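Researcher: Please predict.
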Amino acid sequence: MSEYRKLEIADWYDQHSKSILSFILLMVKDYQQAEDLTHDTFVKAYLYHNSFNQHSSERTWLFSIAHNLTVDFLRKRKPSRFFKEVFLLQKDNNLLPEEMIRIKEESSELYKALGEIKDTYRKVIVLRKIKGFSIEDTAKILSWSESKVKSTLFRAIPVLKKQLIKEGFLDEKTYEDTDLDISLKKLNADLMWKTKQKQELKKRIISDIEKLESQERNKNPLLLTRIKKVSLIRKITYSGIALIILLGLFIGSAFISPAMAEVVSKVSFINQIVQSLKETDDRKGKLDALYDEISKKLNENKEYKGKVEVGMSWLYSSEPPSFTVWVGDEDFKQEHEDEIKDIIFKCAKSYKIDRVEIVLEVRDKVEPSEKNKELEKLTDELLTITQEVVEEKGYTILASGVSMNPKKVSIKVGIEGTEKHYKEVKKQIEKHVHDVIYAKKHEKFEVEVKREGEDEIKGQNWQPIFTAVMEETHKKFKETNGFAYSFHPKPLEIILKTSLSKGEETKEQAERIEEYARQVVEIKRKELSVEAIPYKIIIRDKDHKKLYEKLHN
């Protein structure tokens, strides 16, 4: 099986590597980094091969892996450093070494202009206009709705044209949209990767694949960045949970044996975890309150009204939060940047949060066309109609989207019960929504209803547990720097990635991390009343190889 996987990855590399490398290059603007991420894309495709379900083409699947890796890479770089290195210094750095990759002169202006627009616009232009992906496949790659792909592309094209005009690369009066489409398609062909470089990277990928364990299983990375605001923070009483677990550890043993001594040594872990979980919840509550306070302070300032928007994110809640402030234009930014940062720093200090990261960004102002406005209005009306119909029938919409080509409304509804019951309800809702839309809007839209699968429900139930494991193990052991999980194949795999190297001492540390993670799982599972299922905790070293694992039934 592993030999078949390796051969298929090699075949996919021959077909798609140039396209993937150029996509990443257009995003990171650094050839060496683009090559490394291309390498990681194909190695990851090998590891995750079992999860490729052919619901999309292998090209779409590979691009989704490449996109996720690129986003992770860009996220880990500090915003200020990223801005300076990628945008301000690109003319001084040899980011396109000619011995490795070359771009034809007539496409170099377009390449530079793409580098100047924000990454959300750049990637949707690259995927739709340069790589030629359909709206559906682009949505899959970016994990967006189809309507978001369309609306973002509508906004992105005028921004790119404006940049090209600003740089003097095109004449506003004579340049047509069709000319831009042709130029974008041509850019794909004009980025030329040297054959020698391509073959050398292939050898490196195959060599690394051969070093991997033959039984490596597919992984599903957990989104690490928590974007404000997802949910309200609940205050939990932990002492009762700790008592139950402690009693469970001691009952059943009438004397202190060596095994019992080992158990006793783990009791402090439980106390630590219980206290740490409470501190984490307090910290998240504090971050929530801080965000609200900053938003309030900025909104109270009449000069900022309608010109400032703030967002907050963090990788781990125990680390400094990052604030992004979007402002209307460059002049406003220069005039008020220090003042805005001072407000945020003072608010943070009042909540006893000493370190925060702040970056101000100018939000592109693009007035949507009349056609765009009409599409957005129609989409909102269709979703409102759909929600009213579904709620009238006593069900809840979990997710929804609208496509204009073909005309289709897709909804995920919370329908419990047997498959037979689900199919009956599905048919009723689809017909009712279709009929009401036609009656009110005089347009025929296909309506598709789905419900959550067993794995989706299980994933939602376990999500707070996964988050706790990720947060608490990182707080306790700074070597832990990544997290993943997989429900397929069974049992559930909980994977902790670390910076550890192989060796006897590090194996002992891996065992400690595993035991700590297990106790976090059990505490959170009992707290949330989540059904017990077999699971395996896997600790990986810095090279992503298995260092230690243990099965828990």
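Model: The first helix runs from residue 2 to 28.
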